């Protein structure tokens, strides 16, 4: 079982991380992509990849909620130079968060998109309420040959064919199993089966109680919940290509 997107380095997991990883390993989680969000947590992501090379695929990115530090680009490039199978993300655009600066977000995102395109690296994109701008950017720049991932895709069904044409993969989060997320579940039925992935986004995006195998305090989402998320999602989506999709997108061509 592969998890296309989590944040195992998150400080909310401090003190329980080793237990979480032991549980992941004994419950069939074979691979997970651990997404950094700013230069501050990149060292932890790199360390996890070094400690658990079989399990962790490291990803380094500057999240749209984070303020860019002056030398973030050089730092990112140096992580990508030293860790050849590293991915880029989490990065993206967000008009949902209070006080956003969309021009700054655009600049920071396009820098990461361009890097992913130049090196043909897997790119994990976060997009909330900024679909028009995202599509405008994707249409106007070179894109990674392997495509790109729209993690926890929450856009409309109508956008899916065009995004897929541009190279998008779409990952389904356990959070979408909440009853009120029916529109998102319906939209996912339009995702081509060879572009579908699944994710926890742990410690965030807690699934409904019936989809939690591994409860944690403080409403944290356990990364080993991916198995139950897969079982529940397979009742509504055709998931048989997901393992191949994961390998093709995250693990091929290095
Ligand atoms: Zn995330």
Overall number of strands = 8
Overall radius of gyration: 17 Å
CATH homologous superfamily assignment: Metal-dependent hydrolases
Report the CATH architecture. Answer: Alpha-Beta Barrel
- Which structural class is indicated by helix and strand composition? alpha/beta
Helix-strand sequence = EHEHEHEHEHEHEHEHH
User: What is the CATH class?
Assistant: Alpha Beta
Please give the share of residues in helix.
Answer: 25-40%
Q: What ions, cofactors and ligands are bound?
A: zinc ion
Low-confidence stretches: none
Largest sheet: 8 strands, parallel
Whole-number mean pLDDT: 97
Strand order of the largest sheet: 1-2-3-4-5-6-7-8
Shape, principal axes of CA atoms: globular
Specify the number of helices: 9
First-residue to last-residue Cα separation: 21 Å
Share of residues in strands: 15-25%
Total domains: 1
Which fold name fills CATH's third level, the topology? TIM Barrel
Description of the structure:
By secondary structure, the chain is an alpha/beta fold. Helix content is 36%, strand content 17%. It contains nine helices and eight strands. The chain has helices at 17-26, 42-51, 72-82, 102-119, 131-140, 160-166, 182-188, 226-233, 242-251; strands spanning 2-6, 31-35, 56-60, 87-94, 123-128, 148-150, 168-173, 196-199. The longest helix has 18 residues, at 102-119. The mean pLDDT is 97.
